[in-house]
Design goal:
The chain has four helices and no strands. The protein starts with 7 loop residues before the first helix and ends in a 6-residue tail after the last helix. 43% of the residues lie in helices and 0% in strands. Helix 3 (54-60) crosses helix 4 (65-77). The chain has helices at 8-12, 37-47, 54-60, 65-77. It is an all-alpha fold.
Length: 83
C-alpha cells in the first residue's frame, strides 16, 4: 500500500484545533491544627458512644475520617482507652 492510498495519512495534514485547559492553583498546605486535649477527649468520647458514626463525627469537625480513626486507634494502642 502506497502512502497516497493510506487514508490515515490524510488526517495528519488537516488543520487541528486545540482547547487550552486551565486549572485552579493548588492550595497551599494548611498548618496542622493544635487540638487541645479536652477537644480530643470530647471527640474520642463521641466515637465510643453506642451507634456512633466516626466518619460523620470527623466530617462535622472538618476532619478527614482517617484522622479521627487514627487518633482513636493510637489512644487504644497506648492503653489510654479500652475498645
Amino acid at each position: 500500500m502506497s502512502h497516497a492510498e493510506n487514508p490515515m495519512s490524510d488526517s495528519v495534514n488537516q488543520p487541528r484545533t486545540f482547547e487550552v485547559l486551565t486549572a485552579a492553583p493548588v492550595r497551599a498546605r494548611r498548618k496542622p491544627r493544635d487540638w487541645p486535649n479536652e477537644e480530643k477527649e470530647r471527640l474520642i468520647a463521641e466515637t465510643l458512644l453506642p451507634g456512633a458514626n466516626v466518619s460523620a463525627i470527623a466530617r462535622a469537625e472538618g476532619l478527614d475520617p482517617s484522622q479521627l480513626y487514627g487518633c482513636v486507634a493510637r489512644h487504644c494502642h497506648r492503653g489510654w482507652l479500652r475498645p
